[in-house]
Recover the amino acids of this structure.
């Protein structure tokens, strides 16, 4: 029963969010709610990272810090941008590395759940961070062999916002960000990671 009421609440909140986007935009730069619809998820993400919210195929994509309206209240997620390459520490016994990225949600209801996914570009594929269900703070992004090296490598981080219950079958990897089933996806500008020389 709890799952059904959670799904109903999630559907109602998503409908309210969509209505707010259509009627008033998201509050970001250049988003009137009447912009030409994006042709792909990557195009929606590119527009979002310019400082707006964009709706594409039932998912709302927002740039870091852009406000959305949920249940009549303004909410947002800020993704930390260090302004410099992120150090990516090598993992013991593994060729990959781990970097820490911070985010802070504000204004969402207490029962809102968050997960983090990352990719090398907004075109994906996307990998879910293994940190469980963070509610803000730092999340560790584990990058495989080939993503680490002395030269800076690209990294895009997405904070997935679930207004109700988390889906029971979240994939660990997905070709598109929408495959994770989030109500809102906050996306960082392109970051870089680098392994410090030892």
């Amino acid at each position: 029963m709890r799952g059904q009421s959670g799904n109903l609440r999630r559907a109602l909140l998503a409908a309210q969010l969509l209505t707010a986007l259509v009627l008033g935009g998201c509050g970001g730069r250049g988003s009137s709610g009447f912009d030409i619809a994006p042709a792909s998820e990557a195009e929606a993400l590119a527009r979002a990272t310019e400082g707006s919210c964009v709706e594409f195929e039932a998912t709302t994509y927002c740039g870091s810090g852009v406000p959305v309206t949920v249940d009549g209240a303004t909410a947002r997620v800020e993704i930390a941008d260090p302004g410099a390459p992120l150090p990516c520490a090598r993992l013991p016994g593994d060729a990959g590395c781990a970097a820490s990225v911070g985010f802070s949600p504000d204004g969402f209801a207490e029962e809102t759940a968050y997960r983090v996914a990352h990719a090398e570009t907004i075109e994906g594929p996307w990998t879910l961070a293994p940190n469980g269900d963070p509610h803000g703070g730092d999340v560790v992004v584990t990058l495989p062999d080939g993503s680490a090296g002395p030269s800076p490598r690209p990294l895009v981080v997405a904070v997935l916002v679930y207004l109700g219950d988390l889906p029971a079958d979240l994939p660990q990897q997905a070709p598109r960000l929408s495959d994770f089933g989030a109500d809102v996806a906050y996306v960082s500008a392109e970051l870089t990671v680098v392994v410090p020389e030892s």
Observations:
- The chain is about 15% helix and 35% strand.
- Helices lie at 2-24, 41-48.
- Residues 2-194 form one domain.
- The longest helix spans residues 2-24.
